[in-house]
Amino acid sequence: xxxxxxxxxxxxxxxxxxxxxxxxxxxxxxxxxxxxxxxxxxxxxxxxxxxxxxxxxxxxxxxxxxxxxxxxxxxxxxxxxxxxxxxxxxxxxxxxxxxxxxxxxxxxxxxxxxxxxxxxxxxxxxxxxxxxxxxxxxxxxxxxxxxxxxxxxxxxxxxxxxxxxxxxxxxxxxxxxxxxxxxxxxxxxxxxxxxxxxxxxxxxxxxxxxxxxxxxxxxxxxxxxxxxxxxxxxxxxxxxxxxxxxxxxxxxxxxxxxxxxxxxxxxxxxxxxxxxxxxxxxxxxxxxxxxxxxxxxxxxxxxxxxxxxxxxxxxxxxxxxxxxxxxxxxxxxxxxxxxxxxxxxxxxxxxxxxxxxxxxxxxxxxxxxxxxxxxxxxxxxxxxxxxxxxxxxxxxxxxxxxxxxxxxxxxxxxxxxxxxxxxxxxxxxxxxxxxxxxxxxxxxxxxxxxxxxxxxxxxxxxxxxxxxxxxxxxxxxxxxxxxxxxxxxxxxxxxxxxxxxxxxxxxxxxxxxxxxxxxxxxxxxxxxxxxxxxxxxxxxxxxxxxxxxxxxxxxxxxxxxxxxxxxxxxxxxxxxxxxxxxxxxxxxxxxxxxxxxxxxxxxxxxxxxxxxxxxxxxxxxxxxxxxxxxxxxxxxxxxxxxxxxxxxxxxxxxxxxxxxxxxxxxxxxxxxxxxxxxxxxxxxxxxxxxxxxxxxxxxxxxxxxxxxxxxxxxxxxxxxxxxxxxxxxxxxxxxxxxxxxxxxxxxxxxxxxxxxxxxxxxxxxxxxxxxxxxxxxxxxxxxxxxxxxxxxxxxxxxxxxxxxxxxxxxxxxxxxxxxxxxxxxxxxxxxxxxxxxxxxxxxxxxxxxxxxxxxxxxxxxxxxxxxxxxxxxxxxxxxxxxxxxxxxxxxxxxxxxxxxxxxxxxxxxxxxxxxxxxxxxxxxxxxxxxxxxxxxxxxxxxxxxxxxxxxxxxxxxxxxxxxxxxxxxxxxxxxxxxxxxxxxxxxxxxxxxxxxxxxxxxxxxxxxxxxxxxxxxxxxxxxxxxxxxxxxxxxxxxxxxxxxxxxxxxxxxxxxxxxxxxxxxxxxxxxxxxxxxxxxxxxxxxxxxxxxxxxxxxxxxxxxxxxxxxxxxxxxxxxxxxxxxxxxxxxxxxxxxxxxxxxxxxxxxxxxxxxxxxxxxxxxxxxxxxxxxxxxxxxxxxxxxxxxxxxxxxxxxxxxxxxxxxxxxxxxxxxxxxxxxxxxxxxxxxxxxxxxxxxxxxxxxxxxxxxxxxxxxx
Length: 1258
Fold this sequence. Notes:
Blueprint: E1 5-13, E2 16-24, H1 27-43, H2 48-57, H3 59-63, E3 103-105, E4 170-175, E5 180-182, E6 188-196, E7 207-213, E8 217-219, E9 230-234, E10 238-244, E11 250-263, H4 282-285, E12 290-301, E13 308-319, E14 340-354, E15 357-364, E16 409-415, E17 425-433, E18 450-460, E19 463-473, E20 475-481, E21 488-491, E22 503-510, E23 517-523, E24 529-532, E25 537-540, E26 547-548, E27 556-566, E28 572-584, E29 591-601, E30 607-617, E31 622-634, E32 640-653, E33 658-667, E34 683-693, E35 698-714, E36 735-754, E37 757-770, E38 778-790, E39 795-805, E40 815-825, E41 828-837, E42 846-855, H5 877-884, E43 890-893, E44 896-905, E45 924-925, E46 937-946, E47 952-963, E48 967-978, E49 983-992, E50 1018-1028, E51 1035-1045, E52 1058-1071, E53 1077-1092, E54 1095-1111, E55 1116-1129, E56 1135-1149, E57 1152-1165, E58 1170-1185, H6 1210-1213, H7 1217-1230, H8 1240-1257
Parallel strand pairs: 3-11, 5-12
Antiparallel strand pairs: 1-2, 4-6, 6-10, 7-9, 7-11, 8-10, 11-12, 13-14, 13-58, 14-15, 15-16, 16-17, 17-18, 18-19, 19-28, 20-27, 20-45, 21-25, 22-23, 22-27, 24-25, 26-27, 28-29, 29-30, 30-31, 31-32, 32-33, 33-34, 34-35, 35-36, 36-37, 37-38, 38-39, 39-40, 40-41, 41-42, 42-44, 43-44, 44-46, 46-47, ...
Helix pairs in contact: 1-2, 7-8
């Protein structure tokens, strides 16, 4: 019989702490049960696999009642009195009934504390809030200590856990002293917060507070590295944290939350956070428990650093086409040989203070600044992990580009604005984004793009002016893709993308009701996805399910929205400007009125977008947003398309017990904007809803919504005309059928709290009118019943039943949704849900089953996530994230994370909507996401990640889809770490098929579509080794092996049926036995096999390179290098190139070098130019730049320290101290022994006293 142990749980009964002993099985036995169920799951077939696996995961919640050590939380008994109403937000919903590991609290009106709050730890005098920050560039008044609360909390024994539920709690956080800190990447700012009860007294329990920041990173010890965000411990209600700045001046938003103290009221977020589009069910969707939270704001100010200049100017005189040390493509180029050439090149970087401004500039006359050694020139630079020359370099350092530019020049002049809370003033030329044109209040006028050119921003008091100009934009495209449950590969509509120009969003809207985006999340290259710019494919770091079943709300369908530039379009220019008058810069009262204008010259298709918008925030009372937009564009058919869009939305408290919202959105049919949220042209929607609290456990809801769809819907790719756009997509879809219909929805319901359960009953009436056909006409009544029942502390059952009374609505048949929510980890919830519905006049009966991972989106601001994937002296966090990182993870053990997913759709969903028909296509262009349907099929996914060992990390992921339109397998496995202190290894394997390539038929029948079976899976295996001895830098080496298959397959090339396989081996090393000698060698082999129309083509390419450098002295050096490249092929296309160079140099000064050398090269290309050779003597003069005109950038020597700070060697101050110490020890040995009562400490003091006496006499 296994041993058992006792666990103690603390509960609170009217402030009396009682101790309950529970006899539970050991954790090892629980893990054994989980493993047994998992084994049974893998041996089963069908849906039992998912059910059994899910039961195995939630097994601990069914046996373990208490939380982990030091996190046992107090709970209120069921017979305790409910808390009283304290503020409007909490007054509109039924009270909470708590479990044993969390407490429900009332939210307080303010999201950021004021100095007048009772029990505030912040001083009431504004002058006392200024405390000198050690790293602040501004001199502040003398530091004044932060006072403590005047009333001390009553004496009590501190406990670890959450306080009693009968109290109301509040969390505050503010910066200590100056809220500004330099953006130098090193300076820090201290944050202090407190958790108080309704009396303003600090709580006496210890809690864990989760911090997230929009910029910078927290330093110090994270209490739980596996949890998203940064965790600090609040001791006796107080906590502190330290935030380190980055190098970008900006306003930074910081959030503090306590996961174990929750509130049931829908909190109103600060004014600069996202404002989601409202619907008639928005208030109902907000019902639930959320952690108490608070926000604050700090500023990273411009770092006015001392000037710095570095660079080189090089003059070369010699034969043309023989520059061995230059670009490889120019060496022995037949178009650039013959005669003598004089080349003057320069590359310089400089930064420094110019008055109150910081200037940063860079110039390279030979190449674009962003161009790397592979010739890639992308917006904002950067290299993905899959593009690195070697998988691992044995170096954990990071590089941050400060002068991104796709041309040869970058300049930026900036300063921190003197207006509190304002954005920095700057003007620049280089790469930039358009965050000033994508404010919270902008939906139809928003522009989210990556551009290059000129941009300026300046604050004239409350007036902010922004202007931009982009001079080299190529074809612009917007694609919308339906995810099918796997991570990739997702093909875009275009190939040869402009690197770095993409923006990727994941959107969600109500199924069968397009036009209103409910959720939107931006994804980033590296942490979230990899992209192949040549093929136009996306591979995400986690599977993305097509649907999100909410058993207590609306069913959502997801979309992947990608905007990008491509080489196939015409070169265009863009102009834009924005005026914004800021009424308030406060975080929780952000308010402004603005107008914007944008014009894009697209050659034959010009585009104009202008409008006005405003945001009015009233703290916790609510917010109001308004917007007007107008677009003028040229359609695909050559006609002009002009349209307008309107938006007015409000959300807030109406008294103490009433919460309401109202909205109006209208988009005319010809309005266009491909750089913003998805919307449906020709749609008008408006409505209002209220939710009021009748009693402490009862609330009533009422709502009205009106929707009108009119105009011309888009055609699909499987139409007769649209089929030809499959391989030549247009920026905008072709017009299709005409739609004209309306929908009026009225709903009224009651929400009731029954014990620990939430129950609701709602009456819904939908009245439709179809003005073209009778397909949508009719009226239907429906009863919607919902249940949310906590089964355990972390397991909740949810159910929703939609029952029609009489006839059913064409798009809302009888539907039932059941779900289990398991809170596996703070911020991570697993949801197993199943939905089935009956037939209607438009929709055939269907069922959907999902196992999804739901991540708290407020924790996505964690900017230090990638730091957890770094290994010291091996690779940095970004490289580690690209190699082994997973997203949406559940930590099952320290350092061990799991990602699970399942989705099953029984039938295809191409029933059409009120906005138009749906088609079987793998992408939609422009604002035509409403034409996308869902294919039936099932998908499984499981992933594991291990990062607990500081010198080893590993991950693996398996995904499989069996669908009506495709079968796809995704496999990913990676491991990286230190084999020894000097040797680092990395192995990664990836395999993925085409996730969304489907060629439809021309007759509009989905079942007759043709699948591209010949495309094949894209596979890649990488093995890397790096040798870097941290104790001896004489020898360093790198090695790589890579195997690739179908790395260049695209849909357009599959008519010929080609397959390509390649292998690459590369190794290089550098050896410096002394400061005089340095040897370098490199060898690379590439083998490629291509099958085309039944024929096989083989090719091998070899590269060998050797270099030796010898320094005769500190001024003279000598170098010789040789390089050989050879290619052989069974098709006879052989090629050989040889080059050698010898050079000797002499330093006239430490910055000026003169070199004389000889270079020679030859090429044997039998099929094209034959044999040719060039060579000759050249002169090379190099000047290292340390300053510009007027001494700008010259680093001044550090002044000698003061005399009293100098520390002389001990031998000079006391030349005989060592001898005196020896003599003193000998004398101590000869002394008589002290009495037994003397301690060893007194002996030591006596010995030191005797030793110092001779020194004093000297």
